[in-house]
Every structure is written in structure tokens, then in C-alpha cells.
Amino acid sequence: MTVFLNPYLGFRDQAREALDFYHGVLGGELKTMTFAEGGMAQDPSDADKIMHGQVQTAAGLLLMASDAPASMPTPTESSISVSLSGDDEDVLTGYWNGLAEGATVIEPLTKAPWGDTFGMLTDRFGVTWLVNISGSAA
């Protein structure tokens, strides 16, 4: 038996653009379904919006996103952040560099007091990301 916990990001009209961006950063496979394709376009303005989309990588990362239909309130900020961590410095630094494009850097990706390399940013879609690269304490 397997259980997964996956971030699911909510947007009003930017899910396709965000998923394309995350796919460019993370790689892997991008899948999307519009409200029209899912038979759920109750409002004609929702037809081309993303009902469900996901980026899944060979390394096991899974990031999901959707647009809110016109009948639902616009998603607002939450206290959730997305964290990428591990010991593959090249891969995680590449993710950081990609996510940093157009982002607001909160903490630069630098050596942290606990011995890891850590950085935090809010990407151009308003999503906060934490990147922690495991390392030994100095």
C-alpha cells in the first residue's frame, strides 16, 4: 500500500502558464485537462481553463494545479509553501535557478548555519518555494 502527499496549486487563469513554467524548470511529463475536455465547462469562459494539470518527473516529483472556474471564488494566498530538498546539489541548484526567473528572492541560496545550502523565493505566480540541499556542518 502506498500513500502520497502532493502540492496542488490553485489559480484563476494562470494554471496553464504556471504548469508550462514548472515543466520547464522540473522537466518530466506535463498533462493537462481543460474544463471542456472534462465535460465540466458550465460557463463558456471556463472551457479552456485547466480543470486539472500536473507535472510528474522520473525522480518522483508530482506538482498539480488547476484554475478556479468562474462560479468559484478566486484562490487567495495561503500559508503553504512548496519545499524541494535532497542531496543532489546540481539538480536542486538547477531547480532554484529556474524558479528564480522573475521571482522575489526571500533568502538567497547560500550555506545555512545548520550546514545545508538553503534558499527561499516567491515565484512569479505567487508560490513560495524552499530549496534545501543537504550538506555537512562546517
TrEMBL record:
Protein name: VOC family protein
PANTHER family: PROTEIN YJDN, PROTEIN YJDN-RELATED
Gene3D superfamilies in the record: 2,3-Dihydroxybiphenyl 1,2-Dioxygenase, domain 1 (3.10.180.10)
SUPFAM superfamilies recorded: Glyoxalase/Bleomycin resistance protein/Dihydroxybiphenyl dioxygenase
InterPro entries: Glyas_Bleomycin-R_OHBP_Dase, Glyas_Fos-R_dOase_dom, PhnB-like
Ranges of residues in domain Glyoxalase/fosfomycin resistance/dioxygenase: 11-129
Pfam families reported for this sequence: Glyoxalase (PF00903)
